[in-house]
Amino acid sequence: MLAIRMRTRRRKAVAFATAAALTALAVPALTATPATATTEPPVTAAATATATAANSAYDSTYYKNAIGKTGTSLKSSLHTIISSQTKLSYSAVWDALKATDQDPNNSNNVILLYSGVSRAKSLNGGNTGNWNREHVWAKSHGDFGTSTGPGTDIHHLRPTDVQVNSVRGNKDFDNGGSAVANGGGSLTDSDSFEPRNAVKGDVARMILYMAVRYEGGDGWADLEPNNNVNNGSAPYMGRLAVLKAWNEQDPPDAFEQRRNQVIYDSYQRNRNPFIDHPEWVEAIW
């Protein structure tokens, strides 16, 4: 009887591994789907595993000095890896976002981060009805502005509706609040902003990328997540516990993976490691 149970367990393990491998092969690394206000990502461990498997090719090359590490050692290794990058001017960000955030169903449009709306690339600017360049890590948190460096790093710069961007302002991220007009399901209160469900993980991974990339050794502030809101001009962004939960709830999807690849291939030549390995969030924090 014991032998039968052991054979049954082995068969189940083999079947699970085979299914996982087939799922990973089914994910097109450069195929994007629109992040609309009505699209909700699957909240499953399998989805996170698939995202990881889809980018494992970089483990033996780009990430080779980080593999197998955890905690501060992993964070330090990733910082060294991703700090090698090409830097853009703030004006060059406009054209970069038109490529990184292109609507996969309409090459003339971009997908707006918080609202999920598809809007014409030509409508970039500062007026009502336009889209502009949102610093997901608010530029006042560390006072880096729009100078070349963290202020122009497109791993955390995204197209957003001008008015929704204004509502977000420089608020920290947290759960709760009232609905944001034309915000696609985003919520806000006096001291925090909660993006729509479909991009909660995107926001978390952008914030944590910034915390690893900018450690204070290159003339910019040492950016770090914490569990506070109302961080003001301090180089902190909260809440870390909520960001970690969002990373788990909303694994990287095809749109986010494609975006990471376009930035790597065509612009900055560095990657957001938490898109390739979302499990590294828990390994560090």
Automatic annotation (TrEMBL):
GO terms for molecular function: endonuclease activity. Keywords: Endonuclease, Hydrolase, Nuclease, Signal. PANTHER family: ENDONUCLEASE-1. Coiled coil: none annotated. This is Endonuclease. Residues 1-37 form the signal peptide. Pfam families: Endonuclease_1. Residues 173-193 are annotated as: Disordered.
